[in-house]
Every structure is written in C-alpha cells, then in structure tokens.
Design goal:
Length: 404
C-alpha cells in the first residue's frame, strides 16, 4: 500500500495542544533521542504547542550507559534529556513522571497533568508509555507503531496487550503494507506513516573520500517469534548472509553493534571494524558526527521485517539520507513507496549488495545529492506531520458522523 503524504500546499492548520510520549529519559542514546525529538521540534515548527511527556512505567526501565545497568533511577537520563531540549531551544517542553516515586521531574513538571488533560492530540510514539488517567482522557489518542510485525505479533499473543492498544483511538505504523506484504493481522486498522525529519537539524556536508560504510545496530533486540509456521527473527538472522561482504566488495565497513550475543570476534575476522555503539551514540550530536563522517550507510533489517515484506524503513536511515549520505539497505518492501536506485539502493542478497555498493562508488556525489532529495521529498516534518494530524482529525470526524 503506497504511503501518500500529500503536499506542502495545504493551508496552515489550526494551532493544537499536542503531547508527544516517547523514550528518552529511559533510553538516553543519540539516535534514539532524535527519533522522538523530531516529532516535538517538528510540531513546534508547525506552530503547535507541544509537550514531551515520558513515563517510567511500573517496571525497571531506566538505562544508564555509564554503568550499563537498568533500574529505576532516572538521574542520568534526566540530565541527557535536559541537555538535548536546551540545545534545540525547547528548554521548557518536557517532563518525566517517575511512577516508582510518584513524582514529576523536568521543567514542565508542574503543568504536565493539566496540559495533558486539556490537549487536543496525543502521539504515543513507539508505545513505550502507559495511558495514565491524564492521558486516557485525551479525545484523540494516536498510537505510532515503529516496530511493525512484532507489535502485531504481541497483540496476537496477548489479549491484554491488544486491549491496552485499543485504548488508543487512532493507529499508525511504519509498515507501508507493500502489495505482497504478509504482516500478521491483529484486527487493528493500521494507517501508514513515517519518521518526520527536521531537515535543518541535519546539515549536508561533503561525503568523506576515505570514510567507511557504517551503521548502528542491535544484533538481538529480543527473542525471535514463531507464528503460524513462520519465524520472525532479529538482525542476527539477517546478517550472516552478508558477513563476507568486506572481502567481496573491497569496501570498508564500521559496525557499531550492541547486544551481548553479537559475534564480534567473527565479525572482525571477516573484515568488519567493530565499534562500541555507546561511544557513537553518547548524545544526539555525537551520533550525527558519526553519520557525517560515514561514506554512507550499509544496513540489514530485522529478519521479521523482511519475512513479512512489511515496507518498514528505518528512522536511522532517514537521518543518513537527510545528511546527504547514500543508504544501501536490505529490502523490506519499502521500494513500493520509496524510490530506489539513486541515493537509496536496496538489496535482497549478497550479490545485490555488492552491486549496489559498486553503483554508489561509481557516481558517489550524484548519489549524495539524491539522498538529500529523497529526505526532502519523503521525510520532511512539514510533509509527514500535517498528514498525520489530518488523518487523526478525519477519522475523528467520521466517527462523530457515524450513527451510534
């Protein structure tokens, strides 16, 4: 199913009060932070009144990269989040609810509940925040699924999880549902969306002549899932087909790879330069420096995204494109809605990956320019976010007009 984001010629929308829920205090890492920050900053640029709210949830979920521990103490993440919002000129636009202590943190702590209860729209990005009473009362509660296939599988495996999802009123997904997609059906009417990118936060620089092809990835994010005879796996299941790529292509690759299960020694033996992902994602700006010093991105996708032909496209890859860096990435079905061949090249085998890398190197500067153009035409915040807001408004109007 193609994703139609419309055009920028639409009239300016009314000013809304919007809550964005995400994962920054508990996941204080550079790339992950940009994923949420661009929703907040993009909506603010469109003239809306926006507040980022995060909830600890009721289990240990605060990651501290200095100790590699997960617990309930948000101290590190609070400092990380404060610095990011201040640098982007939004120092008052966030608050964090610590359910373990029953208290709010952050500059908007005193007004968070009141703002939430009176807001027009909730965007629950990645659904890592529970709907507390102050959020459950919002008229338009949009769930943004950024992990398609696995989100639907969780709903099919757990009625409780699916019922909790249905506490939202609108449902969006990073799956574009390509014509041959086989995403498990959880009975929810998911509408396609994509990552918004605030383009002036991603300045274009000349691609380095000696740079490596890079990416940041988790080898295993969680366990593979089997459903109706099909296994939906992690990147650990996708990557082995490409492990000999350095010797086959002659290109240089740097892999910032996380998870204890990653076979780092084997990767090094096969020519991959293995980096500590915490070093390149220490903050949002260091992460961008890592992208800019890259020749481009080479990346595989979660096996489940590929197996289901989900049409998923990475928010990380969108950042590479915005920076004017070509992306050579594993096909998930995204080529049904996102043009490939210039700036963005897809592959489904090692032979295709070698060929794609060779094509980019053969006309590198043209592919760099095309990469930025793709970001402008398909991911710009002033294209993606108005379409998402209009869809929530249209659905809400349709429900009001439907006889009860």
């Amino acid at each position: 199913m193609p994703v139609n984001m419309g055009s920028r010629s639409r009239p300016r929308a009314e000013r809304l009060r919007i809550v964005v829920c995400g994962y920054m205090v508990r996941g204080p890492l550079g790339g992950l932070a940009w994923h949420h920050l661009q929703y907040v900053l993009g909506l603010k640029r469109l003239g809306h009144e926006v507040l980022f709210l995060e909830d600890s949830d009721d289990y240990e979920s605060c990651y501290d990269p200095t100790t590699h521990q997960v617990g309930t103490d948000p101290t590190y993440g609070l400092g990380f989040t404060r610095a990011a919002f201040e640098r982007l000129g939004m120092p008052e636009a966030w608050a964090y609810y610590d359910a373990h202590q029953g208290r709010w943190h952050g500059p908007a702590a005193a007004r968070a509940v009141g703002f939430a209860r009176s807001c027009d729209l909730l965007l629950n990005v990645s659904w890592v925040n529970p709907l507390r009473p102050w959020l459950a009362e919002v008229d338009r509660r949009a769930l943004v699924d950024t992990d398609p296939v696995f989100t639907q599988l969780r709903h099919l495996a757990s009625d409780q999880r699916r019922r909790a999802a249905l506490e939202h009123t609108h449902f969006f997904t990073f799956s574009s549902r390509s014509p041959d997609a086989a995403v498990p059906d959880d009975g929810i009417d998911w509408r396609p969306t994509r990552q918004p990118v605030v383009l002036d936060c991603w300045p274009v620089t000349e691609g380095p002549s000696t740079g490596a092809w890079t990416t940041v990835m988790q080898w295993d994010s969680y366990e593979s899932v089997e459903w109706e005879g099909t296994v939906y796996g992690m990147k650990s299941r996708s990557f082995p087909d490409y492990i000999h790529l350095p010797s086959r292509s002659g290109a240089r690759f740097e892999l910032a790879v996380g998870s204890e299960s990653a076979p780092r020694d084997e990767l090094r033996r096969n020519g991959w330069i293995v980096l500590d992902p915490l070093e390149v994602t220490r903050d949002p700006w260091r992460y961008q420096e890592f992208v800019r010093r890259s020749r481009g991105e080479f990346a595989v996708a979660k096996h489940g995204y590929v197996a289901a032909r989900s049409g998923w496209f990475s928010e990380r890859s969108a950042g590479y494109l915005a920076s004017g860096r070509p992306a050579v990435v594993q096909e998930t079905g995204f080529s049904s809605w996102l043009p490939t061949g210039q700036g963005l090249l897809s592959f489904s085998s090692a032979d295709e990956a070698v060929e794609a890398l060779s094509k980019v190197e053969g006309d590198y500067h043209r592919h760099c320019s095309a990469a930025r153009e793709l970001a402008v035409e398909h991911f710009a915040h002033d294209l993606v976010l108005p379409a998402l807001i209009e869809e929530t408004s249209a659905q809400a109007s349709a429900r009001r007009m439907t006889p009860g």
